[in-house]
Amino acid sequence: MLSPRFLLLRSAVSLSCRSFCSGGASKPGRAPDMIEGNPLLHVSNVRNRLREIVGASTNWSDHQQAMADRVSLSSMLAKSQQDLPARRMKDSYLEVHLPLGSEPQLREKYLTFHNTVRFGRILEDLDSLAVLISYSHTYNSALKRSPLSIVTALVDKIDMRHHVIYPDCDIKFSGRVTWVGRTSIEAKMHMSQYRDGAYAPVLDATFVMVARDPENKRAAFVNPLKADGPEEEKLLQEGEANKSRRVELSTASLLKVAPTDDERKIIHSLFLNTLDTNTVSFRSRVLPPNSVWMEDAKLKGLEICHPQERNIFNRIFGGFLMRKAYELGWANACSYGGCRPNLVAVDDILFQKPVEIGSLLLLSSQVCYTQGKYIQVRVHSEVFDPLTRQHNTTNVFHYTFISDRDVPNIIPKTYGESMLYLDGKRHFNQTVEP
């Protein structure tokens, strides 16, 4: 039996779904459920629904008043997690359709000039869906608006199960809450594409969201989660394991502790391979054959953060940041490998600070590790204040790409670059099986 929340979402968009799905003969990339007009949530309605839940204004000129009105919702927050009813995984389950096969006008937004799908747009959709799934888990039918501010804290992992996303075939996103802490939520999502008469899996994604008060200043409690059956119990256990892994990785960060013995041997071996045999000097370095100095594998960009890219809380939309970082990272991998690379995985995207409207956002991508055909790219984003001249890190992104040929070896020269190399190797080992 579907939850009241899901029925509400389905009925709210049934008319719009029927209007674009009805009529016409079946096409190879057009799924039957889209043709028959099943009332499933259209991708364009996700952010509209989020605005309704939060009470956000669609006009930038009204944003200050809309946010001021949310302050009064603080009294609706739970004093403890025990005050909130437990929810099931199916209560937050959502399906969202991206009808690339049946809406040519929508398709234009997702196309590259090579007639492939812009993966950065997919990242935006996943981010919006993760927020809506989290609100579905915390939904209170007695309230007209949610007092919670739910934002993305971390993209734990995105695994590509199929490298090709067809530009003229319908896409279906599905997802649900699979683990909760006291104030955090893990949402697992799946993306599939309709082709040759069936939906085929494309990617699996895990996002971690956090709940805050209406002013987004302090943490807020979320509904506990209960499992129905062994399958859901397994998902809960995986969520706990994911949390433990994240804590362990944070504790072992190269920004906090020294490299392991094996890692130190790797760095020293790289150093020895770059010594000039003629001078045998620590200061004389020579680039080995088929190699590139790390300092020569950078690509940078700047974004002026306009109101058009704001989220429902009037800060820059996390999906927009992910899209811009991905496209810069892809361009760097393309330049480095000399061909169009395919994405293998997205790993450990950390949202450290929100990006305010009007900010100058500096993006810097760095090829930090290579192995065979694989290219590991790290993208660092920071906000620059031209008045104070201060830089503040907002996000760090990690992408693993694969080329159609072996790529040059990336070689660090300084100690700082060596740490980037080891960090990239760690992320590579987490996402690609040996």
Automatic annotation (TrEMBL):
<dbReference type="GO" id="GO:0047617">
    <property type="term" value="F:fatty acyl-CoA hydrolase activity"/>
</dbReference>
<dbReference type="GO" id="GO:0005739">
    <property type="term" value="C:mitochondrion"/>
</dbReference>
<feature type="domain" description="HotDog ACOT-type">
    <location>
        <begin position="92"/>
        <end position="215"/>
    </location>
</feature>
<keyword id="KW-0496">Mitochondrion</keyword>
<keyword id="KW-0732">Signal</keyword>
<dbReference type="GO" id="GO:0006637">
    <property type="term" value="P:acyl-CoA metabolic process"/>
</dbReference>
<comment type="similarity">
    <text>Belongs to the acyl coenzyme A hydrolase family.</text>
</comment>
<keyword id="KW-0719">Serine esterase</keyword>
<dbReference type="GO" id="GO:0052689">
    <property type="term" value="F:carboxylic ester hydrolase activity"/>
</dbReference>
<keyword id="KW-0677">Repeat</keyword>
<feature type="signal peptide">
    <location>
        <begin position="1"/>
        <end position="23"/>
    </location>
</feature>
<protein>
    <submittedName>
        <fullName>Acyl-CoA thioesterase 9, tandem duplicate 1</fullName>
    </submittedName>
</protein>
<keyword id="KW-0378">Hydrolase</keyword>
<keyword id="KW-0809">Transit peptide</keyword>
<dbReference type="InterPro" id="IPR029069">
    <property type="entry name" value="HotDog_dom_sf"/>
</dbReference>
<dbReference type="InterPro" id="IPR033120">
    <property type="entry name" value="HOTDOG_ACOT"/>
</dbReference>
<feature type="domain" description="HotDog ACOT-type">
    <location>
        <begin position="295"/>
        <end position="407"/>
    </location>
</feature>
